[in-house]
User: Fold this.
Amino acid sequence: MYIFMRVNNIFMKKIFSFIILMTLTFLPLQAETIQGKVSEQGAGNSSRIIDKQTGLGIGGADVTLPKQNYRTRTDNNGFFELDTQINGPSIMSVKKENYKPFTMTIDEKTMNAPIVVGIEKSNASGQALDTNMYHLGDNSFSELSANAGEFSMQAIGPFYTKRFTLKNIDITKPVYMIIGSIIGIDTAMARSMGQNRIPNAFASPPEVYFNGNKISEIQLNGDGQRIRIPKNLLRKNQVNEITIKTGRNLMQTAYIDYDDIEFMNILIEN
Ligand SMILES: [Ca+2]
Assistant:
């Protein structure tokens, strides 16, 4: 329940900041289009990547949909177009040198409206551990699952492990692990929140381990999930280990059916 409240809260904050961002950037965009009359970039689909601090467009940012193998780049003013089809929730990734890697979950509905994203300069007190996308599970999943889009990516198995040396982190302050985006979780809670449409089955939640100790269960799909790492588990200037283990279908007893999930971007931050 605690995790549920927190994730929900983060989700709401995201929605609010997204709406604020949309409002702030929509007006100048319209004004620019009307005044300029020559620029077609602002008209129609004006999806854009901007600097969160300055509000200015960021040119040359890589925008990808890894599952669809789709890749594009923002123009000099930060504008881009997603000229592809998606089927169900998909992770959109934004990468640009000197900025924190960013991901968000989009779907058919989100794609029809302009997507304006503010990204942040990378700072000294954070560490991007892995910016790749991973698929956990067994490649066997229901069309009604929270991750029913087309899979171009093969499962690496039921768990993911990353070893890393802790750098740039002040362990006297709270330390968080952040999962940029995660989709496909079919827990009872995800079902009750309308994140999937499977009527009769649900899975145990994915589990997160830090140096061999379970620190969290992830009940819901979403972006920017923050998990606090207990201080006593942190090893400064030594090798640390993060493991994410996917859940299993609790209604299937004849064989093990792992929940097929995808996630992208693992960061450590103060
Ligand atoms: Ca499965």
Q: What stands out?
A: The pocket of calcium ion is lined by residues 137-138, 140-141, 257-260 (CB under 6 Å). The CA atoms of residues 98 and 122 lie 6 Å apart.
